[in-house]
Amino acid sequence: MNKRQRAVREYLLGGCTYLQLEKKYGISKATINRCVLKYQAQQQAKLKGVGLASDPMKPKPNQPPTVEQLQKLLEQEQLRNKLLNAMLDIAEDELQVPIRKKFGRIGGPNQAVNKVRHNEKRHSLSTLCALPLRRSDWL
Fold this sequence. Notes:
The chain is mainly α and 139 residues long. Helices cover 65% and strands 0% of the residues. The protein is built from seven helices and no strands. α1 crosses α3 (29-50) and α2 packs across α3 (29-50). The N and C termini lie far apart (61 Å).
């Protein structure tokens, strides 16, 4: 592995800045930046070759997706959903803060709108929802 490759590797692993790498390897910041961008473009091209880097929802020109492609996309999205849910679970556990939206919250604006609508039938839902309410009004 040459100096440029080592510098790119160190930069991508998050260990050093361009300035630190310039001093360490004697390569200009601009050269390191070009090498990093070139490496990232190469990696992106490799991923496109396997169909992972392009937008999965963007259809190929003049080609409807095959059943196999749709099944693969579904599997990828299901896996993505599992990963995102796991990230939320970890964040909620570590931060001790509920992140997910809780529906039917007591005292929230939805409950207030429904109560007024139920008690005073002369107001439409759209009229009640259009009223400017601030969070401090119902907390």
